[in-house]
């Protein structure tokens, strides 16, 4: 392998955009960050409280002041996991701190708790929490009424409302991103379902093509092997000719099988769902009406003379109609060879402005050809069902049955307008 192969393979690949810092931080990182903020805030608040004169009401109130500071700062690292409880504790502690005229700026930490609450809780619930927080701050400000009451109250309310607005915006953005992700997953699931459905339809198509091809080839082989067995001693030249037909027919069907199965040979054949852009091995198109001469030659080799009559002006047909018409003719003539005991058949292909009519009539009497002795019972009926299904896929008409004067008739009409193609 060349030394520069990895570099060549990745040379033209677009660089992956870096994720935002907020997306790269884990829950542990955020907890550590909140802990650092809480520690710094507690140290700052304690330092400010220590510079003030002792509370004239006694040292107990100093302890209450420090306890309020701790209650505001310590719960902060848990604001993401327990937003309701943390908001309740911090709001109450801020109210106590304001009532004691101590560090009213700690309401800024309550803003973080309010943000966390609004970012994860439903809107009605977070609005209720906001109203409760405002009332608590208002009560704390009233309890510690002073000249700065209006300023402390106004800043506290504004900070809480601001935290709620930012949190509400975050909640909406996350909900929107979640909706987009769910829609993307749904589209991906639908795409995979379409791929699976297309693969299943292709397998059904291949199975049908193989059935039609194999049934026709095996009919020729069965008839000719019976003839060769009966003539091997009395007329060896004719038996040798029959064996040659068997060989050529076998080679032909093997080639057609390889072409049909080529669609399964893809680089992603082992995967349950093929990639949408995966290259597919080339597959020869299924035969259409332009291959009728080859089909009739094989039928004649099997001992049935076919008179082909074309009516109307031949024209280009959609591939799906051409393939189905060919398979209907192939299946009908296969039944003639295998089951009818016929020596001749008449094939009429009529091009009408609105449809394509196919008629196959044989002169069979039934039960007299070698193929009848080995043909599985009911195989002709299965062939008729397949022909009828092909015609009905295009909204056409199909009929099949014996004629009063003898023989069997198959008639199919396939609409050829673009809406049915």
Structure report:
This protein is of the alpha+beta class. The chain has two domains: 19-189, no CATH class; 291-421, Heat Shock Protein 90 (2-Layer Sandwich), CATH 3.30.565. 61% of the residues lie in helices and 9% in strands. The protein has helices at residues 5-10, 21-24, 27-50, 59-73, 83-99, 107-120, 123-143, 149-231, 236-261, 292-301, 319-340, 379-393; strands at 305-311, 344-351, 355-362, 397-402, 408-415. The protein has a five-stranded mixed sheet, covered by helices on one side. Helix 4 (59-73) runs antiparallel to helix 5 and helix 6 (107-120) packs antiparallel against helix 7 (123-143). The longest helix is centred in the middle third of the chain and has 83 residues, at 149-231. It is rod-shaped, with a radius of gyration of 43 Å. The relative contact order is 0.06. Mean pLDDT is 72; it is low at 8-14, 266-284 and 366-379.
The total number of structural domains is 2
What fraction of residues sit in β-strands?
5-15%
Structural class: alpha+beta
Uncertain runs: 8-14, 266-284, 366-379
What's the number of helices? 12
How far is the N terminus from the C terminus? 50 Å
Elements, N to C (H/E): HHHHHHHHHHEHEEHEE
What key attributes describe this structure?
Heat Shock Protein 90, 2 domains, 421 residues, alpha+beta, rod-shaped, single chain, 5-stranded mixed sheet
Topology overview:
Blueprint: H1 5-10, H2 21-24, H3 27-50, H4 59-73, H5 83-99, H6 107-120, H7 123-143, H8 149-231, H9 236-261, H10 292-301, E1 305-311, H11 319-340, E2 344-351, E3 355-362, H12 379-393, E4 397-402, E5 408-415
Parallel strand pairs: 1-2
Antiparallel strand pairs: 2-3, 3-5, 4-5
Helix pairs in contact: 3-4, 4-5, 5-6, 5-7, 6-7, 6-8, 7-8, 8-9, 8-11, 11-12
